[in-house]
Amino acid sequence: MNNYRRQEPVWRCAVAGGPKGFRAVLLAAVFGMLLPGTIAAAGVGEPGQTQPAATKPAPAAPSATQSVPASPSGVKPAPSAVQMESWHRTLLKKPAPKRGCFTATYPETTWREVPCKAPPHKLYPPRRPGAVRSLVVGGTGPNFSAVVTGHILQSEGSFDSVANLTAECQAECSGGSCSTNQTCTPSSPTNEYSLQLNSKPFATSACKDSPNPDTCQGWEQFVYAQDSYSPSDTGSAFIQYWLLKYGPPGTACPDPQGTSCTQNHVGTDGWCPFQFQPTDPVYCVVNGPFSASPPSVPITSMAQQKLAGTAGRGIATPDSITVWEGNTNYEAVGGNYFPDLSSQWQAAEFNVFGNANSSQAVFNNGATLAVRDGVTDGTTNGPSCDAHTYTGESNNLTLIDSAPAAINGPMPALLFSEAIPTAGGLATCADATSVGDTHVTTFNGLHCDFQASGDFVLLEAPDFTVHARQASGAPSYPNAAMNKAIVTQMGTTRVEIYLQPTRILIDGKQTDLADGKTVLLPTGVQVTRRGNIYDISSESGNAVRATVNSAWIDTIVGLGQTPTAQVRGLLGNPGANARQLVTAAGAVLQQPVSFNDLYYKYGESWRVPTAKSLFTVTAVVPAGSAGKLLFGPKRPVEPSNPTKPLYAPDLDPAGSSHAMKVCKAAGVVDPALLDDCVLDVTVLKDDKAAETYRTSRVPTGVFRPVMTSKPTAQ
What we know:
Structural class: mainly beta
Radius of gyration: 27 Å
Shape: elongated
Distance between the termini: 37 Å
Largest sheet: 10 strands, antiparallel
Number of strands: 43
Helix content: under 10%
Number of helices: 5
Strand content: 25-35%
Low-confidence stretches: 2-71, 623-635
C-alpha cells in the first residue's frame, strides 16, 4: 500500500499526490490508452516502454475517413495510434445492425455480418461467499474495480504492458478456492485463460419473481475464453448472465427455463439453476445466444487484446461484447437478459483469470501486468476505486501495493499493476501510515512527525476505526514516541495488537494465532499472521497491517473504497486538501502551523480519553523504562507532548553515523526518508527499522512545525 508521488513545491509536511513516477504514468496512460501493446507501467511506476515486436498489433491500412499523404513510392503509411483508436471508438458507438456476430477490419466503418459459434457450456461462477481471503487476484483475493457516480454505458479492459511473461497454465482448484501456491504440471493445459469484464452485482427487474427479491441481484459477465493456442484456433467472446441468490434450495429459475440443464452446465435457451452446495441458495445462469470468434493468441501476446462490454439500453438496444485484436474488431450481440443494466451499472472489474469453474491462471515468476480498466459514463472524470472482485476465477499474481491511478479522458480508466512475486503488500484503494518514532502519512499524502504519547485516533470512518497507543522514548529520547499497541474496530468486531509482550485480542479475548494461520470471523473480519506481520481486513476491503518489531509497531491503514470523504483522524484529511490539518472539532489549521498548534490544538483534539478508548488493556509507562509498557489494571499511558522537534541532525553524530550507513545500505536515498530512517535506527536501537523505507512513499515536500515560542500546555 505504498504510493509514490510527483514533485510539488517543498512546504514541509510531505505531500504525496499520486503513484510514483506520476508524470511517466500520465504520459504512458495516454499512449497506453491509444495503442495496445504500449507499456504505461502505471502501477509499477516505471517509464513507458515499447512492447517487443512480437506483442504489437499487426500493421493496418489507413483510415477510410482520413486523408493520409502517400509516400514517394505511392504506398500510404500505416495509420497512427490516434487514427486506430478513433476508428475503434467510432465502431464501439455503432450498434450491430441486428442480432448475430459481426466484424470490421481497419479502415472499414461498418459492421460486416459473419457466422457465430456456440458459446461454451462452461460456468464462470461468482466469488463464493464466506471463503477465507487470500492475496491472489480474483477468486478469494481482491481486484481493483472502476467505480462511477452515474452509470456505466460501456466498459473496456486492456493491458498497457505484459512484461517478463513467458508461460501460463491453468490450475483446477479443490473446493472452488485457489490459493497462492498453485503450480503447473506437465499435464496442465497451457495458453488456456479467460479475460473477464464483470459488472458489480446490481438490482434488476429480472429478480421480480424471486422468493427473495431483496437479496436477489443481477450480475453480467463479458467473457473472452480461450482453451488453447494455435494459429488456426479461435477463442470465444460471449456474455454470461447470473441471478445471484435467486431463492432458497429447491427454487425454480424464472422463465425462460433451460431445457438441458445439468450440473455445472449452462446453455443459451434459458436459465439453469446453480448451487455451490445443496444447502446453499439457488443461483440462475444463462449464456447469450451468440459467440464471436476472434483468433486465439498466445498468452505472451495478451497485450494485443482489448475487451469491451456495452450495456443494453431497454428492449430495443441489446447488449454486446467486442474484442479488438490487431486491426480487427469482433462483436457478438447478447441476449439482453438485463435490459436495465445501463441504469444500474456503477462498477466494473477487468482482468485475466482461469478459464471457468473457479480455476486459476498460473503465470511464471517474474511476470508483471499493467492493467487498464476503462469506463464510459458520459463524463471524462477518472473513476473511483473499489478493492473487490466479483468472479470465482483467479490468477496467481498479487496486486502491487500502490493505489491505482485514476485517469481522465474520453475513456476514463483505473490503472494498476500486478506481479509475481511481490513484497506481499496489502493492496487497497488508498493507504496511510504511522511508522517508526513516529512518522505519519495521511491518505492525501501529508507527512509529519507526531511524537506525542498516549492513545490517539488514527482513523475514524463509518464502520471502521483505528486507535494507536504511543509511548515516549524517555529517558533517552523524551521528544520521540513510538507505537506500542494498535486497535481497530470493523463493524462490531474489535481486534487489538499489543507489544511487550506480543499478543492479539479479538473482541476482548486473547487469541492464539500461529504463524501462517488465519481466523475468519462470522462478521467477515479476517485476521492473518505472517511472521511478525498481522493483517486485519473486512469484507468491505478496509484493512490494517501491524508489523510488530522489537520495540515498536509499524502500522498501515487501507481503505477498500475511495473517495471516502468521511475519513477523519490523524491519518485523515477531510475535504481532500493535503495542505490543511483538521481538528476533531472541524477547525482548519492552514500552513504554516506552529509547534504549539500541532500538538496542543490538533494533536490534543485527537487524543482518546481513557473512558472512550477501544483498548481492552491499558498500560502505564514506569519511570526509567525507556518506553517499555507494563500491562495491567485500567491505567492509561502517561499523556505527554514533546517540548521540541527531534530530527536526525539533532542526534549525537557518534550514534547517527552508524544509522546513516545502515539506511544507505538499505537503498534509502530520498533526503526526507533518509532523515526519518537515521532517526528511527538510532532512537529505536534496531537496524531493522531501515527495512520500512525500502518501499516507503517518496515525499516531495516535508512539513516541520514553526517554533514561535516555548510550548506550554493549553
